[in-house]
Here is the input.
Amino acid sequence: MMSKTNGATSPFADVSLIGPGEPPPYRVVNEAAQGQALLVCDHASNLIPHALAELGLDYRSRQKHIAWDMGAERATQYLARHLNLTAVLAGYSRLVMDLNRKPDLPAAFPEESDHILVPGNQGLSYEEKTLRKKTFFDTYHGAIEKELDKVRARGQVPALVSIHSFTQALFMEAERPWQYGVLYDKDDRIAVGLKSFFGRHPEVRFGDNVPYSGEHPDDFTVDHHGEGAGIPCIGIEIRQDLLATQISFQHWVGLLCEALREVLADPSLYQLRPGFNAPARPRFDRFLEPLPETS
Here is the structure.
């Protein structure tokens, strides 16, 4: 069975977890844009399909950062509109399946997050994990590959920009002073440009691989679609309180927009990473295989 997504048919989706009238597993924004960079937002939504009965969580828990990156969807759409770039947005909560985690890891189906138990993720069977993976993970990442391939089909090297948001503090941590986090690992080309731009703005405090690190071994999206393909890539975090009011949103997302406009305008950016010998297109199909029985 196939599902309609943004006017296109997705061959990956098994819609048995998504009922009639519910949103698709991903959305593509500004699909006709011709820019070489693609925006993605892994944690855009806090929605949970009716079939999963809210994962046993109350309304308050489903509004917390454990369920989504608050403000990240709106920020990604703003950037897509003002930079004339295509964006792929996840349609459901990271608690259903974390699309930025390798699917064979426990963190892909969190049983607990920030000291909150997720009842609907306790003791998931192999079949339950496989169905969620097929419905949400395979569909979303298949859409990212499709959009990157559109750029490759024009004879161009694409770039990948992943947008996230972070809390002012996590559990018992101290306040986080940074407005942005610049996350990268093997490929720092976009990061170097962003850090140079922010360095010219004294009001900006940015985290260089903090509050999270692009070197985290369990991350998936940028590691696979970006570094795994040798294309320029970056993860960007925006502090959530800065996205809460219209004035603050306009200032901080607007400033990030200026930074990306400058960095992504450099034609020399769009090259395969020096020394990268693997094929330009990674083998996404290996992640469409069933999860190992031991997962």
About this structure: The radius of gyration is 18 Å.
